Amino acid sequence: MKGDMNSKKFELDYKMKTETAVYETDIQHDFSLRTGALFVHANKPWNNKAYGAEERLPNIFAIHNYANQNKWRILGSVDRHFYEDVELIRNKGGVFVDHCMNGTFGQLRLPELEVQRDIYVKTKDGPMLGIRICTEEELRKFVESDAQVIFEKQSYDVDTNPNFKPVMKLLLDSGIKNIVFDGFATDYCVKAAVLATARYKDYFNTKLGIYVATDAIEEVDIDFSGKIYPLFGKSALEEMTNAGARLVTTQDVLEGKI
After folding, report:
1. Which residues pair with 181 in a beta bridge?
2. Are the beta carbons of 144 and 171 closer than 8 angstroms?
3. How confident is the model at residue 7 (pLDDT cuts 50, 70, 90)?
4. What's the pLDDT at 9?
5. Are residues 75 and 21 in contact, defined by beta-carbon separation less than 8 angstroms?
6. pLDDT tens-digit profile of 87-117?
7. Fewer Cβ atoms within 10 A, N terminus or C terminus of the chain?
């Protein structure tokens, strides 16, 4: 009975709040800038001008600012790596160089995203520590705030954060009807976040518009074996659309066409 009362209160608290959210995927120094440890640039040749992820940043910032102006929820994710993380080359079977390491400048979100408003939903608190599962009360406070809710992860897949699923449920219960995805990288972190969201949309049997801003993302185009694969990003987009995502442009978002 107590749980039912809490659910009703939660529903009332959320009445008339925004129906749209933006999910900003791993927009961190190490991915976003050519000086980063794992700059995402789809194997494009070096250029004096902005290229790769750098070229996408103005669109990402434009969507972010538009979301703020329209009081949309802002969600997102960040890699936060420790030396023992299995996806790092330093460990047997890992495929990625050290990047977004805990405590480094490269791990930080870009300042244009107003990081002082971020609440980080952790997977674990530090090196060699176990998985951190937040209480329902903690997660409700995160979602009920007007902060930017950012999921930390030690894998490219945000769904490895055990708090992602319950937060998604709380967001859907709050009335979120649409989520726009942008960020890096199309064929890894963006795809994983979109597919996880699509799974939970079906699992919780709710209507949810899932949108991917194709000119506000960038792919790696290197597969899991480390081989250059020019169609890896395109393949990821196909997987996302097959899961129910719709491909849009930044202009579509800014013109309210979602």
Report:
1. 23, 212
2. no
3. very low
4. 44
5. yes
6. 999 999 899 999 999 999 999 999 999 999 9
7. N
β-sheet bridge partners, residue 79: 153
Instruction: Answer yes or no: are the C-beta atoms of 148 and 75 closer than 8 Å.
Output: yes
Rounded to whole angstroms, how far apart are CA atoms 66 and 173? 24
* Percentage of the residues of the chain whose pLDDT score is greater than 90: 89
Classify residue 43 as left (phi > 0), alpha (psi -120 to 50) or beta.
left
In order of 64, 140, 206, the CA distances from 67 in angstroms are 5, 22, 23
**Is residue 157 within 8 Å of residue 196, measured between CB atoms?**
yes
Which domains are delineated in the chain? 21-254 (3.40.50.850)
Distances (CA, A) of 105 to 82, 85, 111, 188: 14, 19, 12, 22
The tally of CA atoms less than 13 A away on the side-chain side of residue 194 is 31
pLDDT at 3 over 90: no
The first and second tokens of residue 51, run together, are 């290229």
Assigned token pair, 108:
């930080």
- The per-residue DSSP string of 105-160 comes to GGGSBPGGG-GGGEEEE-S-SSTT-------HHHHHHHHHSSSEEEEEESSS-GGG
**Paired tokens of 136:** 């329902």
